[in-house]
């Protein structure tokens, strides 16, 4: 997506394409007078366990920041705000930053938004704020696409609609009559609509679809604004589950537990030992880094979205970590592909580096080309699992399960599909071993300054480097994994004399298409597993998808893409060809 064409005129953000201003001179006060006060948002947000707002026109995010600040000021600590917004013409982060500097917005929320503002790529983006109390889901898409997606996925509904795009006569697509019909379908009982526009066409469309409309007189910013109230029955309240059982204490299990716990669901987390992060996910060094492509086919889109959500979420659960990573060109990443990715995502997420810039950043003099990912980072697996599971709604219990015999709903989020027995027979999965090695060098100049990604990863720490990880599809001879990682290190650093200090071995389950397995497999059984070597990025994202589906909420993923990660995809493929992993299983 290309950024919106906008500029500041006399201190106000102005769109020459729509010949309209984004907001009044005091956009925060405008939000209060046009949306918060007429819809009685503060009192309603305080009463609700979960309160949902859907906004047409994200702009610079002023409505979100202003309402979010009021929510944090007045709502209870166990309340949750779902703020969903759509933007067909996203502003650049630089313009948003300038708009926030001029306006009196909450600086903490503003900085959190800007730090991980999405790249200008169409999609559904989710960001959590302030101990997970505020959930922002941002569509970069036209409003019709976004609202249709919401209708298809969400059964929880909207408590308050905010119509804040450009004026109807200048942006007619945002005020189409079909949209009002969908708004009525998705509104909760006593749902409201607020808008700066009191145009007769807007009032007629609201009235036609079941909203009583009144004009709000004499605001400081508009002569008239409007408040609509649903005057018919809205979406029926659905009884949310109060408890869920999850099996697995690694990245997938703890991330899934956290996704339910932050939604107010009590989680029983079963692990064999009664602890978390003590198997493969407990590896001492892992890198959260994307496996990106410049294409927009479903696997590439999935990997892109996992990185954007997980980079924001996992950053809250790490400490004393190495920030930033350099992706070097190599056999799996051509210079053109990496440059295309850099151009698409922008410098907030990726910066293309020439040889001199590479040398200065890494301390290595022999690289030709690469890209710097400032939001990639190193994690300690055990610490992340412990942090994810540290929540008042999560109880960790020691229990060894051999097969899914539970009558109540259960979610398997483990490193292996073996617990599922016959349910997983048709899946194209393989459990393979891998190894991480640590080496030291006598010369400090041999150790790079940043994490390097090429054929695997090299993570520097003081005078040592951790190198990983091997993908051992067949059983390797003793010592081969260490030798393989040593060669990777020697190539990346252009140094030979490294001393081996130790190894960490683990097992992970991979699929034939390198995508995880997420979804419902029986009336009472769901799964989130087979993340392979990408679990640091994909498990939080898939946990959000699974929890959203289970609870009838909008997921941060297009519905048409769900089949790409659903367990049934393998059966459909095997109707055309055999299981490619059959001969490798052991």
Please explain how this structure is put together.
The chain is α/β, with parallel strands linked by helices. The protein is 29% helix and 27% strand. It contains 16 helices and 26 strands. The strands form four sheets. Strands 14, 15, 16, 17, 20, 21, 22, 23 and 24 form a nine-stranded mixed sheet that branches. Strand 12 (243-247), helix 9 (251-261) and strand 13 (266-271) form a beta-alpha-beta unit. Helix 2 packs across helix 3. The longest helix has 17 residues, at 298-314.
* Separation, N- and C-terminal Cα atoms: 46 Å
The outline comes out as: globular
Gyration radius (Cα, Å) is: 25 Å
Number of strands: 26
Which percent band covers the strand fraction?
25-35%
- Fraction of helical residues: 25-40%
Low-confidence sequence ranges: none
**Helix-strand category:** alpha/beta
Largest sheet geometry: 9 strands, mixed
Mean pLDDT: 90
**H/I helix tally:** 16
Give structural attributes:
alpha/beta, globular
């Amino acid at each position: 997506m290309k950024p919106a064409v906008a500029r500041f005129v006399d201190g106000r953000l102005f769109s020459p394409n729509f010949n309209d201003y984004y907001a009044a001179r005091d956009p925060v006060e405008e939000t209060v007078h046009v949306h918060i006060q007429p819809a009685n948002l503060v009192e309603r947000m305080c009463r609700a366990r979960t309160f949902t707002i859907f906004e047409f026109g994200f702009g610079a995010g002023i409505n979100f920041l202003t309402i979010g600040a009021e929510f944090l000021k007045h709502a209870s600590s166990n309340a949750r705000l779902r703020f969903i917004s759509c933007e067909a013409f996203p502003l650049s982060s630089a313009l948003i930053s300038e708009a926030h500097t001029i306006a009196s917005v909450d600086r903490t929320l503003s900085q959190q938004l800007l730090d991980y503002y999405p790249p200008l790529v169409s999609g559904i983006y989710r960001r959590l704020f302030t101990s997970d109390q505020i959930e922002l889901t941002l569509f970069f898409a036209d409003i019709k696409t976004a609202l249709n997606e919401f209708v298809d996925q969400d059964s929880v509904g909207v408590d308050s609609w905010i119509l804040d795009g450009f004026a109807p006569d200048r942006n007619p697509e945002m005020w189409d009559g079909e949209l009002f019909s969908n708004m009525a379908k998705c509104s909760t009982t006593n749902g409201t609509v607020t808008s700066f526009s009191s145009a007769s066409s807007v009032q007629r469309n609201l009235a036609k679809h079941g909203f009583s409309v009144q004009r709000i007189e004499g605001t400081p910013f508009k002569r008239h604004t409007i408040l609509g109230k649903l005057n018919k029955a809205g979406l029926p309240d659905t009884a949310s589950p109060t408890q869920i059982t999850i099996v697995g204490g690694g990245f997938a299990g703890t991330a899934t537990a956290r996704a339910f716990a932050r939604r107010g669901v009590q989680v029983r987390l079963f692990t064999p030992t009664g602890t978390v992060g003590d198997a493969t996910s407990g590896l001492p060094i892992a890198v959260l880094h994307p496996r990106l492509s410049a294409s927009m086919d479903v696997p590439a889109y999935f990997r892109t979205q996992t990185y954007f959500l997980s980079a924001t979420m996992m950053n809250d659960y790490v400490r004393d970590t190495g920030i930033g990573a350099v992706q070097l060109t190599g056999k799996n990443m051509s210079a053109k592909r990496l440059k295309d990715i850099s151009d698409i995502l922008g410098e907030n997420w990726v910066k293309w580096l020439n040889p001199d810039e590479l040398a200065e950043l890494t301390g290595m003099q022999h690289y030709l080309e690469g890209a710097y990912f400032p939001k990639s980072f190193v994690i300690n697996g055990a610490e992340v699992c412990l942090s994810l599971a540290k929540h008042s709604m999560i109880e960790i219990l020691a229990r060894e399960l051999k097969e899914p015999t539970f009558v109540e709903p259960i979610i398997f989020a483990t490193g292996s599909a073996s617990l599922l027995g016959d349910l997983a027979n048709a899946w194209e999965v393989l459990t393979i071993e891998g190894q991480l090695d640590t080496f030291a060098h006598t010369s400090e100049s041999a150790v790079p300054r940043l994490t390097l990604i090429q054929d695997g990863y090299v993570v520097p720490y003081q005078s040592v480097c951790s190198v990983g990880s091997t993908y051992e599809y067949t059983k390797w001879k003793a010592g081969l994994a260490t030798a393989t990682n040593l060669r990777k290190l020697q190539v990346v650093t252009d140094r030979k004399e490294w001393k081996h200090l130790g190894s960490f071995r683990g097992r992970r389950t991979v699929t034939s298409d390198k995508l995880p397995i997420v979804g419902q497999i029986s009336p009472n059984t769901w799964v989130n597993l087979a993340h392979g070597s990408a679990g640091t990025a994909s498990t939080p994202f898939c946990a959000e998808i699974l929890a959203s589906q289970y609870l009838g909420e909008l997921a941060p993923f297009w519905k048409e893409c769900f089949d790409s990660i659903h367990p049934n995809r393998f059966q459909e493929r095997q109707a055309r060809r055999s299981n490619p992993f059959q001969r490798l299983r052991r």
